[in-house]
Every structure is written in C-alpha cells, then in structure tokens.
Amino acid sequence: MEDPNNPSKETLEKWSKDPNNWIYGIFYYNPKDKRIFPPKKIAWMGFTTNFANPKSVLYLIGILLFFAFMVLLIEKIK
C-alpha cells in the first residue's frame, strides 16, 4: 500500500492527467495532491497552482501582489 504523504511518481502523473482533477480543463483541484505547483496536463507547458492546497493559493496571491507592486513602482518612477 502506498503512503498517502509520499505518493509514487506514477500516482502523481496519474493525478495530473486525470480530467476529474481539472475544473473547466484549466484549474487543477486535487485535495489528495500536496504539491504546491504541480505540472500542467502537458508537462512541457510548465506548472499550475493546485487550488485545493491553501498554501498554493497563498503563494499565487503573493506572486501576483509582488508583480502588481513592481508595476506600480515602475509607473511611479517614470
């Protein structure tokens, strides 16, 4: 039996490819997956946010706030 806190590579890949874990085909939502940024359905396209993981959502908000702050800072300098 597989450890739920340390799933195998095959299980992680199966979760990423399972259409039931994707809302509207673009938002990844899997409460069993503890990864913050799992790969997209097509792995070479990068990573996405696991919206079922609260840490993941906080990281995403932090990144968006950082970029918004940088844009405001650049606009103020001009």
UniProtKB/TrEMBL annotation:
Residues in DUF5808 domain copies: 31-56
Highest rank taxon of the organism: Bacteria
Record key words, sorted: Membrane, Transmembrane, Transmembrane helix
InterPro entries, per the entry: DUF5808
Transmembrane regions: 56-74
UniProt-recorded name of the protein: DUF5808 domain-containing protein
Native organism: Flavobacterium flevense
Lineage: Bacteria, Pseudomonadati, Bacteroidota, Flavobacteriia, Flavobacteriales
